[in-house]
Every structure is written in C-alpha cells, then in structure tokens.
Write a structure and sequence with these properties.
ten-stranded antiparallel β-barrel, 1 helix, globular
Length: about 170
C-alpha cells in the first residue's frame, strides 16, 4: 500500500467539508466557566484527497478574536492498522497539539489523543478530543483532560451545525 492511496478513512473525513456555525455548551465540571456561550464559524475543506482542514474563527470571552486550524488525515503506516493523525493550533496559545486517534466501530465517534500543558497544575497532561457525528448536518467536539486517577474530565463541548448554501 502506498502512503498516498485514498482509503475509507480519508473519505470518512470528507463528510465535514462545508461551512458550519458553532456554539459552546456547558459541561458538568465547567458549567460556570467564562468560555460557555461563545459562538463562531468554521470552514472545512479538503487538501487534495488525504487531508481535511478545519478553519475556525470567533471571539474569545474577553472579546478578542480567535482563529483556529485543525488538520486531520489518516496514516495507514502509523501504529498497528493505521491511525487518524492531525494537529490543532489556535491564536490564543503557542501550543501545537498533535493528534493520534481512532474511529469507533460504528463510524460515528473519532477520538483524538494528545499531550499538552496541564493548565491546572503545571507540567503536562493527556487530553482526548472526540468528534461525534450526530447527523450529516450536526456534530460535536468534546474535550477532556486526564486527571491523576486516570479519569477523563470534561473541559469543553462545542456543537456544530452545517450552514445551508442559499
């Protein structure tokens, strides 16, 4: 198999192409967090057949502009059987988040794992972002941080709704 062969996993990612509106939702642990209630937009486009780019824009709770870029693809030579891979950067921080993940058996939830700064205690922590396909026109992104006991603590949830072309 060549590394540029288009696989089912690459085609799965293409379902996200288009324009989306997004809104943050409260999560149990962070219901009173200032980040709840913000809105934004995201444009998702393919980079040829192997990569998908998610370009977000909105406002931070303090009113400053926020820009984000997520890249997702599938690397058949990464790990046993291949893994979804990607990255995330945002204008609000200098961290480059690198993803390694897998799709659930039902083909609805993509779990992406990364390591980054532990904002609560210093050092680093493990994170899990999950993209769940609710319908062809709706998806969610949920972020979790692993605590010292190995539990995934929710820190953020965003609901995306596809914008229809007029």
């Amino acid at each position: 198999m060549t590394t540029n062969e288009v696989l089912a996993q690459h085609r799965w990612l293409r379902q996200f192409e288009g324009d989306w509106r997004c809104e943050s939702e409260p999560v149990a642990e962070a219901a009173q967090d200032d980040a709840c209630g913000w809105t934004g937009r995201e444009t998702v486009r393919a980079l040829c057949d192997l990569w998908v780019l998610f370009e977000g824009r909105g406002d931070m709770p303090d009113g400053t502009a926020a820009h984000t870029l997520m890249t997702l693809g599938f690397d058949p030579s990464h790990g046993e059987g291949g893994h979804f891979v990607g990255s995330w950067v945002g204008s609000m921080m200098s961290t480059l988040w690198q993803y390694d993940g897998e799709l659930d058996a039902a083909g609805r939830v993509l779990s992406l794992y990364s390591e980054g700064p532990d904002f609560a205690g210093g050092g680093t922590a493990r994170y899990r972002d999950t993209i769940e396909v609710v319908s062809p026109d709706e998806r969610t992104l949920s972020s979790h941080m692993e605590d010292a006991a190995g539990n995934w603590v929710p820190i953020m949830r965003i609901r995306y709704r596809r914008q229809q072309v007029a």
